[in-house]
Write a structure and sequence with these properties.
It is a single chain. With about 350 residues, the chain is mostly beta strands. It folds into four domains: about 10-55, no CATH class; about 65-160, Cadherins (Immunoglobulin-like, Sandwich); about 165-260, Sandwich (Immunoglobulin-like); about 270-350, Immunoglobulin-like (Sandwich), CATH 2.60.40. Helices cover about 0% and strands about 50% of the residues. The protein is built from no helices and 29 strands. The protein has strands at about 15, 20, 35-40, 50-55, 65-70, 70-75, 80-90, 95-100, 115, 120-125, 135-145, 150-160, 165, 170, 175, 180-190, 195-205, 210, 215, 220-230, 235-245, 250-260, 275, 285-290, 295-305, 310-315, 320-325, 330-340, 345-350.
C-alpha cells in the first residue's frame, strides 16, 4: 500500500503476501466503495503502482434494538388496551420486522399480552396494582433476512385511587302519622383500599328528605345521612335516595306507610251503626248519632290529603248533627266521632 492518488482508504486495508485484507470492520451502510493504491515490485524490474476500487457487498444485518413507545398502564384498565407501538433499530434501511412474544428470561407475564396489527402491543386482561405493580414480558423481532433479536420489557402498573361506595340497599320506615315525621340514619362508608369517596350531590324522591348533600369520605371511614319520612296522606309510599359520586350513581330504595292517627284506635268501634246522608254531600251533611244515646260527642272532619282539621265541634244530646259543607273544598274526608268511651269513623265525600 503506497501513498498517492487514489489512496483514500488505504488505512482500511492491509496486505499479507499476495492477499488483500480489511484491517478494520467495514460497513456497507456506512460506505459502499473504497479506493486504495497498491505498488507491486519484482526483482530486476521497476515498481508498478495501481489504484483499485473495492466494492463492499451488502449482507443482512441483525436488528440492534427493539423499542416500545410506552412502558406504563393504569390499573383497572379495560381489556384489549393498547400499550404502545413496537419498532426496531436495524442497519438495513427499509427492512421490515415481525414481532412476537417469546419464552426466556423476563417472560413472566407474556400471557397478559398479544401483538395486534403487526406492531401493536396489547394488554388483553385487566390488571390490579395491588396484585402486580410491574408486568414482565419478552419479545422477539425478526427481520426479512431471518436475523432476530430478543429483548425483555417491564411495564409499570400505575396505582389509581379506588374508593368504593358501601351502604344498605333499602331503608324501610315504621308507619308514620300524617303530618308527622320519622327519621332514620343511613351510614355510607368508603370500603375501597385507597382514594377518597366523593359525594357531590344527593337527591330524594317521594315524601322523603335528606340532611346532607355532599361529603368526602376517606378509606375505612363513614358518614351518616339522616333520611326523614313525612307522609302527607294515608297509604304506602316509595322513593329513592340517589347519590352522585366519583364511582358512579348509587341508589337506596325508601319505603314507608302514612297513617291517620286519631287517638280513637283503642275505643270500641260503632262505625257500622252511624249513618250519614247524603253522601256525597254538596250543601248540608246530616249525621245520625243516636247510637251514642244522647251523650256529648266530639266530631272531627279531616281532609285525607293532609292532617288538616277542616271542621271540629262538640255536640250534645242531639240525635242528629248537621254540618254546612257548602264552603268546604271538594274531596274525600274522614269523619271521626267519639264520646270518650266509644268511637266511629266514616268516609265522607264533598262535591
Amino acid at each position: 500500500m503506497v501513498n498517492g492518488e487514489g489512496d483514500t482508504d488505504n488505512a482500511s486495508f492491509e496486505i499479507e503476501g499476495d492477499i488483500l485484507k480489511a484491517s478494520l470492520a467495514l460497513d456497507h451502510e456506512q460506505q459502499e466503495t473504497y479506493s486504495i493504491r497498491v505498488r507491486s515490485t519484482a526483482t530486476g524490474t521497476s515498481a508498478i503502482e495501481a489504484v483499485f476500487s473495492v466494492i463492499l457487498e451488502d449482507t443482512n444485518d441483525a436488528p440492534s434494538a427493539i423499542e416500545l413507545s410506552n412502558l406504563s398502564v393504569d390499573e383497572n384498565n379495560a381489556g384489549d388496551e393498547l400499550i404502545g407501538e413496537l419498532s426496531t433499530s436495524d442497519q438495513d434501511s427499509g427492512d421490515e420486522h415481525i414481532y412476537s412474544l417469546t419464552s426466556g428470561s423476563g417472560d413472566t407475564h407474556n400471557s397478559f399480552f398479544a401483538i395486534r396489527n403487526t406492531n401493536e402491543l396489547v394488554l388483553t386482561q385487566t390488571v390490579d396494582f395491588e396484585a402486580n405493580e410491574q408486568l414482565e414480558l419478552r419479545l422477539v423481532s425478526i427481520d426479512q433476512g431471518g436475523a432476530r433479536l430478543e429483548s425483555a420489557f417491564i411495564i409499570e402498573v400505575e396505582n389509581l385511587p379506588e374508593p368504593a361506595f358501601s351502604t344498605e340497599s333499602a331503608l324501610a320506615f315504621d308507619p308514620t302519622g300524617i303530618g308527622e315525621s320519622t327519621t332514620q340514619s343511613l351510614s355510607v362508608s368508603n370500603s375501597g383500599p385507597d382514594g377518597n369517596l366523593l359525594i357531590t350531590g344527593v337527591s330524594v324522591s317521594g315524601p322523603f328528605s335528606v340532611d346532607i348533600n355532599t361529603a368526602e369520605i376517606t378509606p375505612a371511614m363513614s358518614v351518616t345521612f339522616n333520611i326523614t319520612f313525612s307522609p302527607t296522606d294515608r297509604g304506602d309510599f316509595s322513593g329513592m335516595v340517589t347519590f352522585q359520586t366519583n364511582v358512579g350513581e348509587k341508589t337506596v330504595a325508601l319505603t314507608g306507610t302514612g297513617e291517620l292517627v286519631t287517638g280513637f284506635e283503642d275505643l270500641p268501634d260503632l262505625s257500622d251503626q252511624v249513618r250519614i246522608f247524603p253522601n256525597p254531600a254538596t250543601t248540608l251533611l246530616t249525621i245520625d248519632v243516636s247510637v251514642f244515646n244522647g251523650q256529648s260527642v266530639d266530631l272531627e272532619l279531616i281532609g285525607l290529603s293532609g292532617y288538616q282539621i277542616t271542621h271540629k265541634e262538640k255536640q250534645s244530646t242531639q240525635r242528629e248533627i248537621k254540618i254546612d259543607v257548602s264552603r268546604m273544598r271538594k274531596g274525600v274526608y274522614l269523619l271521626l266521632l267519639s264520646n270518650g268511651t266509644e268511637s266511629a269513623r266514616k268516609k265522607v265525600i264533598i262535591k
